[in-house]
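Dear colleague,

Thank you for sharing your sequence with our group. We've completed the structure prediction you requested, and as agreed, I am returning the results in plain text so they can be pasted directly into your records. Please verify that the sequence below matches your submission; if there's any discrepancy, let me know and we will rerun it promptly.
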Amino acid sequence: MAIRNMTVATRSLDGDMTVDEFKEWLRRFDVDRDGRISRDELRCAMRTIRTRFTGWRSKRGIEYADADGDGYIDDGEVDGLIDYAQKCLGLKIVAY
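Please find the predicted structure tokens below.
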């Protein structure tokens, strides 16, 4: 597996994030640009916000939000991931 040099700004957990900001932040981790978020991509995203147990939490996040069971989060399932991020990761995500 190649290591890519990605520069991604870390997100503070202290402030609110809008739904659009969350989606844009998440898109930065779609390394293969397929429009879906895999478990590994979600784990990388979680690491930038200094979440502990990223492997376990990313697996749980996919299970929580993946409505069609394909193992990925697509645009139609992001709302489930937002719900998971608020309930289980303590992120503050607001509608506007």
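Summary note from our side: The chain has a mean pLDDT of 85.

Kind regards,
the structure core
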